């Protein structure tokens, strides 16, 4: 805690909490072919994704990969019928689903809305 | 280089367009419009289409440039040719390297029945002309060939396959979408009967332009009919009276394409090819040093300005995503609309990462790509998967 008061620490924590961007919309990705036949969608957010926010996305479920040593760290969450991937600091992430797993999109949308609501509480 | 985008997706569309192309496009839009055979307006747009035809003829080795017709692109042209020739799919010999602009019409047009004979390629994407000849049967009527693969950049021996087509009295249709403007094409010397091209790749035109050459003696039924501003009293066409450009043509796009053609002619196709081959071979050597990366191509062969690779550890889509979003390097991942070639070149089912350059690509941009790939593959080797 050297060089940082309790008050400052709280303020920093507050900033991190408020760093959670709000989910705005889900749009079909421009790169239709990129995900080998899966349907790709981009989830648009109001601001950049922090490490804490990405940590929360892990809860959606699946194998989590986080390449922190890249110029801009990349994460990927992979389950049987969907893939979520994005880059730290970007205001969007991609979700690719199989044709019969589009319900997963709604589940993630719901989770993102709840994430923001819970944060504001 | 912090936030500057490095664009290595020229096989999809070239970018940025030369200044002369932008100026020609704008000038054509600002000038009084002139339609083909319509009106009396004299200005920069008057004769724009014929000037472009002449320049395209120089690039594609076609002296009879009046037989070059404009379309909205290579896909449009391929559909018009394949349907217009009235050949059934099972009468066509084609290759595993073809793009969907050829494959999909063959497999889906209601007027075209059967399945084409697909000649395999080797691990580099090269189609042996002897295999093409061996695939010809008594019912074959045409050979359709992709001159340069948009996946591996491999250039086919279009001259020899043209010779085979002539020997067997077959129609010969050549797709020069990837080679026009970057590799010498000699359509007439290679005995082609039809050649189709796109305007927005190596010719530096804008999207929505392209066309095809149709040898005068080849019977090709027009697929579209409509106004041409010419012989308006004629409603029914007798054989030999066919018109292939109907409706209002994309004159500003064609003016831009003409400027792109002039840019290519001024630079010289041989010079363009020489520079691009040098750059691709340089990139090949850089990427060959990276562990876990497998390149689909042969550095010793002269290739087109395309190189594909895959990682033995990571998905192509992940690599391209990271390159674009972490490093601002634009490549392309997937099957590249050429679905058959991948199993022959040993690519995974999700395809490859494709790097495609232009004559204006700089060596430093390829260095930045190689450096990024070093970091990405290195990071992945050290990464630990966790499960929620």
**Overall residue-averaged pLDDT value of chain A:** 81
- Residues in helices of chain B, as a percent range: 25-40%
Number of strands of chain A: 6
Low-pLDDT runs of 5+ residues of chain B are none
Biggest interface and residues each:
A-B, 29 and 30 residues
Structural key phrases:
heterodimer, A: 121 residues, 29% strand, disordered N terminus, B: alpha/beta, seven-stranded mixed sheet, 14 strands, globular
Question: Can you describe what's shown?
Answer:
The complex is a heterodimer of chains A (121) and B (388). With 121 residues, chain A is an alpha+beta fold. Helix content of chain A is 31%, strand content 29%. In chain A, β3 (63-67) and β4 (74-78) form a beta hairpin. The model of chain A is unreliable at 1-17 (pLDDT under 50). Chain B has 11 helices and 14 strands. By secondary structure, chain B is of the alpha/beta class. In chain B, the strands form 3 sheets. In chain B, strands 2-8-7-6-5-3-4 form a 7-stranded mixed sheet, sandwiched between helices. A 4-stranded antiparallel sheet of chain B has the order 9-10-13-12, with helices on one face. Chain B has a two-stranded parallel sheet with strand order 1-11. The model of chain B has no long low-confidence stretch (mean pLDDT 93). Chains A and B meet through β3 and β5 of A and α9, β12, α11 and β14 of B.
């Amino acid at each position: 805690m050297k060089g940082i008061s309790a008050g400052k620490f709280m303020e920093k924590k507050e900033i991190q909490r408020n760093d959670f961007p709000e989910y705005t919309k889900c749009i079909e990705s421009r790169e239709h072919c990129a995900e080998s036949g899966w349907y790709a969608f981009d989830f648009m957010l109001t601001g950049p994704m922090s490490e804490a926010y990405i940590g929360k996305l892990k809860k959606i479920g699946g194998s989590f990969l986080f390449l922190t040593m890249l110029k801009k760290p990349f994460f990927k969450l992979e389950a049987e019928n969907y893939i979520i991937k994005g880059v730290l600091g970007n205001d969007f992430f991609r979700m690719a689903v199989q044709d019969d797993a589009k319900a997963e999109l709604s589940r993630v949308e719901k989770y993102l809305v709840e994430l923001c609501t819970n944060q504001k509480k | 280089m912090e936030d500057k985008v490095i664009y290595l997706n020229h096989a999809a569309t070239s970018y940025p367009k030369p200044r002369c192309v932008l100026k020609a496009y704008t000038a054509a839009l600002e000038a009084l419009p002139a339609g083909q055979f319509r009106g009396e307006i004299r200005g920069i747009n008057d004769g724009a289409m014929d000037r472009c035809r002449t320049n395209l003829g120089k690039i594609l080795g076609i002296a009879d440039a009046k037989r070059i017709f404009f379309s909205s692109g290579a896909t449009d042209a391929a559909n018009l040719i394949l349907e217009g020739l009235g050949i059934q799919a099972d009468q066509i010999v084609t290759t595993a390297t073809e793009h969907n602009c050829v494959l999909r019409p063959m497999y889906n047009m209601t007027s075209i029945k059967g399945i084409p004979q697909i000649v395999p390629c080797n691990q580099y994407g090269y189609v042996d002309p002897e295999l093409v000849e061996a695939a010809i049967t008594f019912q074959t009527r045409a050979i359709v060939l992709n001159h340069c693969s948009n996946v591996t950049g491999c250039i086919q021996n279009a001259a020899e396959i043209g010779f085979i087509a002539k020997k067997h009295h077959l129609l010969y249709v050549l797709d020069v979408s990837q080679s026009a403007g970057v590799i010498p094409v000699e359509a007439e010397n290679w005995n082609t009967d039809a050649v189709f091209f796109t305007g927005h790749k190596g010719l530096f035109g804008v999207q929505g332009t392209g066309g095809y050459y149709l040898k005068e003696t080849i019977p090709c039924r027009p697929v579209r009919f409509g106004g041409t501003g010419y012989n308006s009293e004629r409603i029914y066409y007798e054989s030999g009276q066919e018109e292939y450009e109907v409706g209002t043509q994309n004159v500003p796009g064609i003016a831009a394409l003409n400027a792109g053609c002039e840019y290519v002619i001024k630079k010289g196709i041989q010079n363009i090819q020489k520079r691009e081959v040098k750059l691709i071979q340089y990139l090949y050597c850089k990427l060959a040093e990276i562990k876990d990366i497998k390149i689909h191509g042969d550095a010793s062969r002269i290739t087109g300005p395309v190189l594909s690779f895959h990682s033995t550890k990571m998905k192509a889509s992940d690599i391209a995503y990271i390159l674009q979003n972490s490093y601002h390097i634009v490549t392309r991942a997937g099957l590249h609309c050429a679905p058959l070639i991948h199993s022959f070149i040993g690519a995974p089912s999700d395809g490859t990462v494709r790097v495609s350059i232009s004559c204006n690509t700089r060596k430093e941009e390829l260095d930045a790509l190689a450096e990024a790939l070093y970091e990405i593959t290195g990071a992945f080797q050290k990464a630990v998967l966790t499960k929620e």
